[in-house]
Design brief:
By secondary structure, the protein is an alpha+beta fold. The protein has two domains: 142 residues, no CATH class; 128 residues, no CATH class. The protein is built from 13 helices and 13 strands. Helix 2 packs across helix 3 and helix 7 runs antiparallel to helix 9. The radius of gyration is 23 Å and the shape is elongated. The two termini are 20 Å apart.
Length: 371
């Protein structure tokens, strides 16, 4: 049987469970439209010598020797950089002039009033005042020199992300394709993307792997047919409809989740790979992603992978309960190379066979002229 694009899309569209069903919330990030939302580039841990780059491209405020208060700044993520598996902060920090009032999964918050900012966070207040001054001068409003700062000047248009700041989440951006990263602390502020807070925290690594898989390439077509796509922009309504399937075979979900943790570690270390001078670094990432793709494809469509392959993977792909993926230990990288070697050298792995249907589906998904 030939599995065409239309047939694959039809199969995926019939999966009843969606990302919304397993989530506490699926929400959009910061809307980069307010002149008074800025990213502050930090030159030291103490946040001194901060420069301010505003959302309004005509404004560029630089404050010499200004100490930006750390209580108001968060690492910033946008869709201009790769965010596959491991969240990658940009060189900027994002100022959030709000107070987070509790440590629950869903947070209560309030905006700081100008008089509070002036008393508690003078550097932030000074930046906001200078931004407002320049913005109004650009707009040729003569009263700019006398008008006071008001909270409406720096209030977020969409405050939904504040409910889940400091809450673990998946951050999904679209940098030519869907890319999902797991933010275990929930501290990152993101723009032009979607955040997902799951009801079951043990599912974060599995869902992150699914969102980064080759099969996810089909979902823009699924969304188009369900008429939930909005001008090509990724939004929460689209992600809520993302179908979620779980493996029927015991242990496979754990293998996929563990590979996801491997890939978080590998992508975090990617920038330092040249310093380590370890050959075949990208090949190692590609290998584990390919294995994850095979298992996810089998979960969503075929359910007929060779049992010998599943046994080999379950025997070799294991991990400790600790957060090894956030370690910088070079020995972990060497260990992942050994796991790859053991899998490839296993006699059962060499004898595994894929059905014609499976290879046909994989070829269709990989064909860039199709998706």
């Amino acid at each position: 049987m030939f599995w065409s694009k239309d047939y694959i899309v039809e199969r995926l569209s019939k999966i009843p469970r969606t990302l919304e069903d397993i989530s506490i919330e699926v929400f959009e990030g910061v809307l980069p439209t307010n002149d008074f939302l800025q990213k502050a580039g930090l030159s030291s841990e103490n946040c001194t010598d901060a420069s301010c780059v505003c959302k309004d491209s005509q404004i560029n405020v630089s404050i010499e020797q200004a100490g930006m208060e750390k209580e108001l700044i968060y690492p910033y993520v946008d869709d201009s950089v790769s965010n596959e598996f491991a969240v990658q902060s940009t060189q900027y920090q994002f100022m959030v002039p709000y107070e987070i009032l509790d440590n629950n999964i869903r947070k209560e918050y309030r905006i700081f009033q100008p008089e509070e900012l002036k008393a508690k966070f003078p550097a932030a207040y000074k930046q906001l005042m200078e931004i407002k001054q320049q913005s109004m001068e650009i707009k040729q409003q003569s009263e700019a020199k006398t008008q006071e700062l008001i909270s409406a000047d720096y209030r977020f248009e969409n405050e939904s992300f504040l409910r889940y700041i400091n809450t673990p989440k998946i951050i999904i951006t679209s940098n030519s394709r869907i890319q999902a990263s797991y933010d275990p602390t929930g501290k990152h502020v993101f723009a032009n993307g979607v955040g997902v807070v799951l009801g079951d925290p043990t599912l974060y690594h599995y869902v992150t792997a699914v969102l980064n898989s080759s099969i996810a390439k089909a979902f823009p077509e699924v969304w188009r047919r369900k008429e939930v796509q909005s001008r090509g922009k990724l939004n929460s309504q689209m992600l809520k409809r993302f179908p979620i399937a779980f493996p029927k075979k015991e242990g496979i979900e754990n293998v996929i989740s563990t590979i996801s943790r491997y890939l978080i570690y590998l992508n975090r270390q990617k920038k330092m790979a040249k310093a380590y001078a370890i050959p075949g670094y990208q090949e190692l990432i590609d290998f584990y992603k390919r294995i994850s793709d095979l298992l996810i494809l089998d979960t969503y469509i075929t359910n007929d992978l060779d049992p010998r392959l599943l046994d080999v993977l379950a025997d070799n792909i294991t991990a400790s309960d600790g957060g090894f993926e956030y370690s910088d230990d070079i020995n972990l990288l060497i260990g992942l190379q050994e796991i790859k070697k053991n899998i490839l050298n296993s006699p059962d792995f060499g004898n595994c066979r894929f059905s014609n249907e499976f290879t046909n589906i994989l070829a269709t998904l990989k064909n860039n002229t199709v998706w």
